[in-house]
Specification:
single chain, globular
Length: 297
């Protein structure tokens, strides 16, 4: 196969994959709307599509081509993949629409048996634990910002793709306990999530503070970059760190404020009542949940 054709196919792979995902979601969402109007409101679908758009913006748009010239652009990519897109994806309650959007025979013969497989269920329980989610997000954030790993991803397109997958996967894991999209609605108290969000800001604050106050350029590759949009390499680094600190502080404050209002608004402080619903609840009424299980069985 000619090299040019391979390059074209590779450049089209991400947009096609995201377009296919959006079409499957839309098909499933329309099916659910025809069965029960209030199952997933339109704002959740908009949230999911916006999350997909932010992922494409980070890795597939012309903005992504500028990450080798500016650490600030590179940081915007990381923030989109880890901080902005994942909660929007989970707020879209994607599991039900995606399952309903796939061919029913495929769901019954392939997806449902896989979801019932004990090792998959065990892995799902592990991945849903807040401690594991926090550790995964912290490891991805700190690990890929080590200068040697950062330079490796910057100089290798393959490793750059791995880096993006790590950031997106870690972001999805981190936001899973916060949003609790269906079917991960639990009866556990929600107040520990406030501590979870606070602890999530610590590695981000440490990294952003280091980038802002360091008196040298940490990533030498940007010293020889063609341009930094009118800034020096050190100023570009400081801008990237300040952007990270500001975005993380604001974005994490939003769910913390929502959960605080929920907890303060509860009239009965009994332990059983202290299990406040997650940000992604009220997605699937009981009748629709049973219908979903029947279609997968």
């Amino acid at each position: 196969m000619p090299l040019n054709l391979l390059l074209v196919l590779r450049s089209l792979a991400l947009p096609l994959a995201m377009l296919l995902t959006a079409m499957v979601y839309l098909r499933g969402w329309l099916h659910l709307r025809s069965a029960a109007v209030s199952v997933i409101p339109p704002w959740r679908a908009i949230s999911f599509f916006l999350g997909l758009f932010l992922i494409w913006t980070a890795v597939g748009s012309p903005v992504a081509e500028l990450d080798e010239q500016s650490l600030t652009i590179h940081m915007i990519q990381h923030l989109l993949l880890m901080t902005f897109a994942p909660p929007l994806i989970w707020l879209g309650a994607p599991l039900m629409p995606l399952l309903h959007g796939l061919p029913r025979r495929f769901v019954q013969m392939a997806v449902a048996p896989a979801l019932r497989w004990a090792p998959i269920q065990g892995l799902g329980r592990l991945l849903g634990r807040p401690l594991f989610c926090w550790l995964a997000a912290t490891a991805a954030l700190v690990g890929w910002h080590i200068p040697s790993a950062f330079t490796l991803a910057l100089n290798s397109e393959a490793w750059h793709g791995v880096e993006h997958l790590c950031f997106l996967g870690a972001g999805l894991l981190f936001w899973w306990p916060v949003v609790e999209p269906w079917p991960n609605v639990t009866n556990q108290p929600r107040w520990p999530i406030l501590l979870y969000l606070f602890l999530g800001t610590i590695p981000c604050d440490m990294l952003s503070g280091f980038l802002v106050f360091c008196d040298r350029v940490v990533y030498a590759a940007y010293l020889s970059a063609p341009g930094h949009f009118g800034m020096s390499a050190l100023e570009d680094q400081q801008c990237a760190g300040a952007l990270m600190w500001m975005c993380i502080s604001v974005v994490y404050l939003v769910p913390a404020a929502i959960l605080t209002i929920q907890l303060l608004g509860m009239r009965h402080p009994h332990p059983a009542v202290m299990a406040s619903p997650g940000l992604g609840t009220i997605v699937a009424p009981q009748g629709e949940s049973q219908k979903m299980e029947a279609s997968c069985g």
